[in-house]
Write a structure and sequence with these properties.
With 478 residues, this protein is an alpha/beta fold. Helix content is 43%, strand content 19%. The strands form 3 sheets. It has a 9-stranded mixed β-sheet, sandwiched between helices. It has a 7-stranded mixed β-sheet with strand order 2-8-7-6-3-4-5, with helices on both faces. A two-stranded parallel ribbon has the order 11-16. The two termini are 48 Å apart.
């Protein structure tokens, strides 16, 4: 056998030698990288997608997976046991049904954040209403202002908020601003210098560092949260970033979006989430924060967070469980719709069971690939009875789920793999008929600006069907 191989080798040309070495190198690369991916024990569809994609990109695939591939983060959590003792019991006479109790218990088990209450929960529709109230609350701050944002742009909106924070910092209020290093990459240190000089603190979530050469970077693992806590008493959470693109008074093409203003004991959970992220980003001990006196409210609410620091995909799990428990209606609004098997099964099962299932998505997003991927699921959804509606002409950026007459989930998480598995996200679960009725009215109003997708729509092969099919293959990687 050895003599035969040597004879063959001497008879081949230099080009054939090179091809043989390249083939051997490619085989070793595929086996080594494949073993690395397989040993992570992730969802089979995602694993196969990575294997096929990277096998087609010899050597370059390693760099792609090194920088953008999924990975787990281990980080120290604050003692949530202590925070639980500060959480009040639910109001007397407001005991939920068995399904609600199960959902709340599951959310608490996977996040450590128990059910709570709010004295006030206000829907803030579009950017102008959110920015106005946020700046007013910042101006009233007396002890601290904590902010965490994915996008904080140095434009008119960002400058107005920065100046408000500078004024409070000069007045002795403790200002802590945590920004995602990628989402807020256009915000320079020079722009934030007045805040730092006034006594405010600025930190960056997963900044780019030189240790990438010997340690896998977290370039693909971002903080997508939009959190503000003022004096531990008022909180803001939802999908609206700090940018002119979300202020409808500055342009007709501003995003359609939704945020929340909260008061009451649930703000303590919001505070805890921020402090954990702050300690993680800065590496410093947690700052001493005095929580205001407990004020139980009539609105039943629970914070839910998820990220690559937990294997439980809490927000994903919460959405799927809530959809399965629905008996009358499921209305889902999301800018990016790239569901996994569990989510698709929940939506189609609900529709097949006679539940009024509606999906509101933007007609066009800022990612053509994601738009094609989302549309690849429409036929299966409509076949099961789901009503699919495309919102336009503005970009729909709202992230909300409404189930029956008493459950709503609002937050920063899109209905896609990235939000469920890669991003650090935060949402709020409500059990309140008044707020659900208000959200239902808002969704019905948005439906007036939608076009219902039909099975007989025009779908040219090269412009629709083929791009959608290819995008769907990449769904687990989006």
């Amino acid at each position: 056998m050895g003599e035969t191989l040597r004879a063959w080798w001497h008879q081949t040309t230099a080009i054939e030698h090179l091809a043989a070495w390249l083939a051997l190198g490619w085989a070793i690369y595929v086996i080594w990288l494949g073993a690395w991916i397989i040993l992570q024990k992730r969802e089979p569809a995602a694993t196969l997608s990575w294997l096929v994609s990277l096998a087609a990109l010899p050597y370059l695939g390693f760099a792609i997976y090194f920088f953008f591939g999924p990975q787990r983060i281990r980080r120290q959590r604050l003692r949530r046991d202590r925070s639980r003792t500060r959480m009040p019991a639910l109001p007397a006479g407001r005991v939920p049904d068995a399904a609600a109790i199960e959902l709340a218990r599951m959310a608490q088990t996977v996040t450590g954040l128990p059910p709570s209450t709010a004295t006030s929960a206000q829907l803030l529709v579009d950017g102008s209403s959110k920015y106005r109230q946020l700046n007013e609350e910042v101006a009233r701050a007396r002890e601290h202002v904590h902010l965490e944002y994915y996008i904080f742009q140095p434009d008119r909106t960002g400058t107005a908020l920065r100046d408000a924070l500078v004024e409070r910092a000069k007045a002795g209020v403790k200002v802590r601003l945590l920004l995602d290093a990628v989402g807020s990459g256009s915000t320079s240190r020079a722009f934030l210098k007045p805040l730092v000089e006034a006594g405010g603190e600025v930190a960056w979530f997963h900044p780019m560092r030189l240790h990438w050469f010997w340690q896998r970077p977290w370039l693909n693992l971002r903080s997508h949260r939009k959190i503000v806590v003022i004096d531990g008493a008022v909180g803001f959470i939802g999908g609206i970033n700090i940018t002119d693109e979300e202020d409808e008074t500055l342009g007709d093409n501003a995003y359609r979006d939704l945020h929340l203003r909260l008061e009451g004991d649930v703000v303590r959970s919001l505070q805890l989430v921020f402090l954990e992220d702050w300690v993680y980003a800065t590496g410093e001990p947690p700052p001493h924060i005095t929580f205001p006196e407990s004020r139980p409210g009539d609105i039943m609410v629970q914070m839910v967070v998820s990220g690559p620091d937990s294997p439980w995909e809490a927000i994903h799990r919460l959405h799927v469980s809530a959809i399965h428990a629905a008996r009358r209606r499921v209305w889902l609004v999301t800018p990016y719709f790239v569901p996994g098997e569990a989510a698709m099964m929940a939506l189609t099962s609900a529709a097949l069971g006679g539940v009024d299932v509606r999906l509101l998505v933007p007609k066009n997003t800022d990612s053509r690939l994601v738009t094609h991927a989302a549309r690849s699921y429409f036929d299966d959804l409509m076949a099961a009875g789901v009503k699919v509606l495309e919102y336009g002409p503005r970009m729909l950026h709202t992230k909300a789920l409404l189930c029956d007459d008493d459950l709503a989930i609002i937050g920063s998480a899109n209905f896609d793999h990235r939000s469920f598995r890669l991003n650090f996200e935060s949402s709020v679960l409500f059990r309140d008929r008044g707020l659900v009725a208000e959200l239902a009215e808002l969704i019905e109003h948005d439906c007036l600006s939608c076009t219902q997708v039909t099975a007989d729509r025009q779908r040219p092969l090269w412009r629709s069907r083929l791009p959608e099919a290819l995008a769907r293959l990449m769904s687990p990687l989006l």
